[in-house]
Every structure is written in structure tokens, then in C-alpha cells.
From TrEMBL:
InterPro entries: Arg-tRNA-ligase, Arg-tRNA-synth_N, Arg-tRNA-synth_N_sf, ArgRS_core, DALR_anticod-bd, Rossmann-like_a/b/a_fold, tRNAsynth_Ia_anticodon-bd. Residues 549-675 form the DALR anticodon binding domain. This is arginine--tRNA ligase. Keywords: Aminoacyl-tRNA synthetase, ATP-binding, Ligase, Nucleotide-binding, Protein biosynthesis. The lineage of its organism: Bacteria, Pseudomonadati, Acidobacteriota, Terriglobia, Terriglobales. SMART domains: Arg_tRNA_synt_N (SM01016), DALR_1 (SM00836). Its EC number is 6.1.1.19. It catalyses: tRNA(Arg) + L-arginine + ATP = L-arginyl-tRNA(Arg) + AMP + diphosphate. Gene3D superfamilies: Arginyl tRNA synthetase N-terminal domain, HUPs, Isoleucyl-tRNA Synthetase, Domain 1. Residues 7-89 form the Arginyl tRNA synthetase N-terminal domain. Coiled coil: none annotated. GO terms for cellular component: cytoplasm.
Amino acid sequence: MYLKQQKVLLERLRTVLRKKYQIEDPKLVIEQPPDIKFGEYALPLAFELARRLKKAPRKIAEELVAELGTIDGFAGFDVAGAGYINARLERGEAVAAIADAVEVVPPTGVRSLVEHTSINPNKAAHIGHLRNAVLGDTFVRLLRAAGQRVDVQNYIDNTGVQVADVVVGLTHLERLNLEDVRSLMVSLLSSGQRIDYYCWDLYARVSQWYEAADVDPAAQEAEKKSRRQVRLEALHQLEAGGNEFAAIAELVSTAVLRRHLETMLRLDIDYDFLPRESDILQLHFWDSAFEQMKAKGVLYFETEGKNKGCWVMKRAGSEVIEEGPDGARGPDEDAKVIVRSNGTVTYVGKDIAYHLWKFGLLGKDFEYLPFFAYIDQSPEHTCWISTSKGGEAEHPHFGGATSIYNVIDSRQSDPQSNVIEALKGLGYVEEASRYTHFSYEMVALTPRCAMELGYSVSPEDQARPYIEVSGRKGFGVKADDLIDRLILASKKEVDARHPELSEEERESTATKIAVGALRYFMLKFTRNTVIAFDFREALSFEGETGPYVQYAIVRARNILRKAETSAETVLAELTRIDTTPYLAGEDGDGIWQLWLRASKLQFLVEQCIATAEPAHLAKHAFQLAQEFNNFYHRHHVLHESDAARKTFLLATAAVAERELVRALKLLGIESPEVM
């Protein structure tokens, strides 16, 4: 409704400008007046045209209003101030349209690929990973709501240094071989312990071992050098594959990966495909990309300077080095190394090959195996994993995307920029323009939250706004522990408020509240804001929180239940009522504001996609809940004596409930029946 009327108005304005002023493709902006009594839309167009037409803005605005005439759905147009055009919707018609609105967005034909989560499979997921996964999953929901087909990918770096570190811990600290590791995993499973939690502690231990804090200070530097050599050799074995070290890594990383998927499923997050770095190496993706990049001159071989013997590419935004007096250019010391002098490929090189595959430009493909079944999801589906050792003949098609969104933290901006630069250099300029680095900042803990988790926090740190987490130091919050604590806190509240419910119902309600609190907390901040997580703030029923929005839905449902009716019934009855009298005056303005905000969901979906910022939708849900709660306190719906007005008020509650549920669903949040 909201978008439809905007589009109608803009199209009429384009026609008027073309006929009256011979202006094509004008810059048209719609703003919101400071007060609803001035109208629903404000257009500053006359100010844009003043210099071009050599007229006062107000004079232009008056001419435009005269030419606009009447437009279906609009009550009229006014000139305000020095030249604003205010547009007023026909409120009664708009309410009828909003009540009847069932947004069905047709498929657009756009195929997007969203890569998110991408946790190193070396230990349990932590709170920082949850921000990545929640942002990515919510953006997937938004793209699908806009009619796009979306493939969800979770990149698995199973040949990186973090996985190598865990295997070093197993083989050097624990002195285990392949069979010992298999036995360990069986033992952990039989005793109810988790491999990802075991690796969490082991990873912290091996990180400390590299620092050689356990040896005599006189020999510390030599020992640190020796242990770092162990790490380097481990990484080489892992990348080469076909050895016991790589076999241990495969065994452990796959088990940890499965645990990651189970953790994310608790937040209703799922995936379609898991591409593994080991298969990118084994299937020689880089070889194909290397040939393309050399042929197009994107890469060049450096013969001097610090990058001598390396294949390098110019960084995005770097300046061309000027020729010297003899006509020679010095080496570009800032060039990005893609292939090291020892022949190994950097992370960025492998990423360039991977993104050529994503766009269907590599000329190679993975082989595929089914890995994880989502049997309780809607729709049910299978998550596939890459392989290089013979996959299924029949499998879904992945890759060949129209647009790519990579949910990767802001510290990876430089590598992401280099991939985009490589695409442009290869001539894939259009594809590069459809490549979005969906960056975000870290998640930390408030000092209070850290102390509640049992960490020792110094008086100095207690005065800080947040404390950073560190997986290497073992300081942080495991994702499952966080979810468990939130559910436990919610359960205590639900048990106290609703003892009449069964244990299963109270557990289900508590889980919905906890997951809603967590997801909303991760989404309400703009992506480039550092989050300081706090249990009490996230679970509060007051303020900008998930439970606050959920509680507004429960209130709306309670009104309908106590009125012994349903949303479908009151919205059907609304068609027989003239609502115009109930939308006038101060009271009417307030109710109309609620209806108008309720009509904006599809507009918010488009805004979130255009800006790659889901926080806009979270803010919309909160504001709609606020306006409904104001309505709830101001209007005693169940005691209204005027039957027609009571139906209108019940319909207002029904529309608010419907649109809040839809908004939360896009945020990945369920709505409990009670709170």
C-alpha cells in the first residue's frame, strides 16, 4: 500500500514535468512531514527545479499542484512553507487497502548468493559468530521477501592456520595419532562431551604453547621459533593433503562443522551449500584463475624489491608509480602478493578463484555430497558439502549467481577490495558492481555480563564500556552457552507468570523469547557499530528489545481473544464500515499513524536491501510496537460502546498484530502466544 501510492504519485509527477517543463528523468525525493496532520508525504522537488527554471520554489510548487489535479487514493495536495508540496492520502480508502493487503511479491528472476557464518571449524562457535550468522540469515530472508532466489553458503576454511593449530595441539600436546583421535571422539561422544568444546580449550592451550611461556626465559625465544616452525610445517601438510596430519584435520573439522550447524539451527539458521577450502585446492580452482589473471595482465611477476619472486597485483585505489629519469619504474611496494616466492597461494588468491566460481566465470565446479538434513524446516531441504573425491551424480546447481553478498567482518575490507579489483581487472566490471562486502563490527561484553559469566574483571576494566573477547585466550562466550543461559532466564520468568502451562509449553515459550531477544539484540544496532552484549538489556520487556515487540503481539492477540473474535473476522467486518470519521482529529491522527506505519513493511524490505542494513527493519518493528502500545493504553477497545468504532479498533489491533508478526518473521523471530 505505502509503496504503491508513492509509485503512483511519482509517475504522475514525471508525466507533469515532461509535459509542462520538458524535463526528463527528474530527481524525485519523497520525505515525511514533521507532523502527520500536514499529510503523509512531502516533496522538495520545487527547490531542485528553482535554479533550472529560474522561478521561486513556491511558484513552481503551486504550478505543479495545479497540474497534478486529482489522483486516486489521494485527498489532495498543498503547498507549504517556501515550496514544499504536501500530499494527503484518502485515509478511509487507505485503511481499507491496508486491511486487505496480502503482500505477494512475484519472483524477480534475480539469483543472489549470500555467504555468511564461515566459522573456522576448529572450536565451538562464539558470540561474535552469532552476529555474522544472524545478520546473514536476516538478509537472506529480506532478499527472498523481495522475490529473489537466494542460495545460502557457509565457507569452510578447513586448511587454515586455526585448524592446523588444533591438530598441532592433538599431535604435539596430547601426543595422539589418527587412531587415537578417532578413539577420543568416540569417548567424548559416549560421555556426553562435545568435540567443539574440547577443541575450544585445546586451541587456547596451543596458542599459549606457541609463546613458550612454559620454558626457561633464557631459552624462550629459541623455543618460540622452534614451535612456530612446527606450526608452519603443519600448515604445509594440511594444504598438501594425503597425509595423517590432514586426515586428523578432516576428521576433527568435519565433526566441529556438524556441531556448528546444530548450534545455528537453534536460531533457525540454515544453509544450502558448504564449500570447503581443501576442495578449492584439490580441484585446482586457483590454476584456472591464475591463467586468466596472467592472460589479462591482472598479475605480474615482481623482479625486485620486497616482493621479488612473487606474483602480485595492484591494490584498489593505489596510484601508478611514476617513471624515473631513465624511464624505469621502481617496484610497487604496496602491491598485493597473490602468489608468494615459494609458490604458495595467499588467502586472497584462493578467494579470487572462489568468487570467479560464484559468478560462474571459472570454468570449473565442485563435486557434491549431501551433508546435513533440515527435516523440521519449512521447506525441508538438504545442505550439501563440496568434495574432490567423487560426489553424487544428481545434485542442485550452485554458483552462477547474479549478485553476491559476503557477510564478513570489517577487518577483512582490504582482502574483499582486492577481490573486487581482480574482477574488474579481468573485465568483469558488471559482476564487480554486484559484489557487496556486507561488513560488520565485533561483539564484545559489558563488564557486568563478563562478571555474570564468571570472568574476573579488574576495577579498571569494570569502568570500560565493553571488554573484547578472544578465542586464542579462551575469553569469550560460547554460542550454545549463551543461548542456554538466555533460555534459562526466560524460563524462570515464564514459570512464574504461567504455571498453568505444561512444561513443554513453558519451555517452548521461553525458547522463543530467548532466541527473539538474542536475534533482535544483534540486529538493532547498525552493522558498523560495536556491540557490547548484556543479558539483562537483551531480555528486558521494556525498551528497544525483542521481548518488547513480542509482548505487543501478545497484547494484540489478547484483545481479540477477549473480544471472542479473530483477525480474519474483524477485518472482514471492516469492509462494511466507513472508517473516515474515526481517522479525524487528534485521536484519529494517532490511530492513522499506526495504520500508516503498519503499511510500510515492503518499503522497509526494499530500504534494507538497498542499504544492506537490516537494522532499519528492527527499528520499524520497535516503532510499530511502540505505537500499538500507545494505542492499547489510550483506547479501551473492549469497553467501546459504539459497535462500528469497536470493530474499527479491533481491526487496528489485528493489523498491528499481523504486521508485527510479519516483521519479526523477517528478523527470524517467532511470536509466542503468552509472555
